[in-house]
Design brief:
Helix content is 51%, strand content 0%. The radius of gyration is 19 Å and the shape is elongated. It is mainly alpha-helical. Helix 2 (27-35) packs antiparallel against helix 4 (51-74) and helix 3 runs antiparallel to helix 4 (51-74). It is built from four helices and no strands.
Length: 115
């Protein structure tokens, strides 16, 4: 049994929801648009081996990695301003591993909302 306890603060949860929503509108779409051409460029690279599809494939792959690094560096905990997870995507974190503040309500999505 774990003895860790996370602190519940509705302001931190609301600030996190705003960050995640703005991320989905911004860099999330950029990552999706960079992921989509990787498949055709990869197929083109194997069907017609030349320098152009290889450069396109690795250029888009590099841009995707760069976008993910930027995403990781900008999606920070509203309380301690550090990435809320050690590994993986920060968007799916329930609480921050550094300050132990909840980023999503443990009581459900509608808890703490004003009607």
């Amino acid at each position: 049994m774990s003895t860790l306890r996370a602190t519940y603060d509705q302001q931190v949860i609301d600030a996190w929801a705003v960050q995640v929503a703005s991320r989905k509108r911004g860099i999330g779409k950029t990552q999706l648009m960079l992921t989509l051409p990787l498949i055709p460029f990869g197929i083109w690279m194997f069907l017609m081996p030349s320098l152009v599809p290889v450069l396109l494939f690795f250029g888009v792959a590099f841009a995707l990695v760069l976008a993910q690094l930027i995403d990781r560096a900008t999606l920070l905990c509203p309380h301690c301003h550090q990435p809320p997870t050690e590994r993986g995507t920060s968007e799916r974190a329930d609480f921050c591993v550094h300050c132990y503040y909840w980023l999503r309500s443990p009581y459900g999505a509608e808890h703490g909302k004003v009607a």
